[in-house]
Amino acid sequence: MARPSIFGGDGVFDYIVVGAGIEGSSTAYRLAKDNKSVLLLEQFPLPHSRGSSHGKSRITRYTYVQDYYMAMMPENYRCWKVLQDEVGKELFIKTGLLCIEKNFGEEFQISRGLLVKNKLEFEDITASVACSRWPGLKFNSSYGMFIDKQAGILRADRCLEAFHQIFRKNGGVLKDSEKVLRIIPGTMVTVETNKSSYKAKSIVLAPGAWSSEVLKPLGLNLPLKVWRINVCYWKIKNPTDFQDMSVFIDYSGTHHIYGLPCLEYPGHMKICYHVGNNHIDPELRDAEAGGRQNDIEILKKFVQEHFPGLEPQPSIIETCIYTTTPDDGPVLDVHPVYPNIVIGCGFSGHGFKLAPVVGQILSDLATGKAPSFDISHNRISRFNIQNSRL
Question: What is the pTM of this model?
Answer without folding.
Answer: 0.94
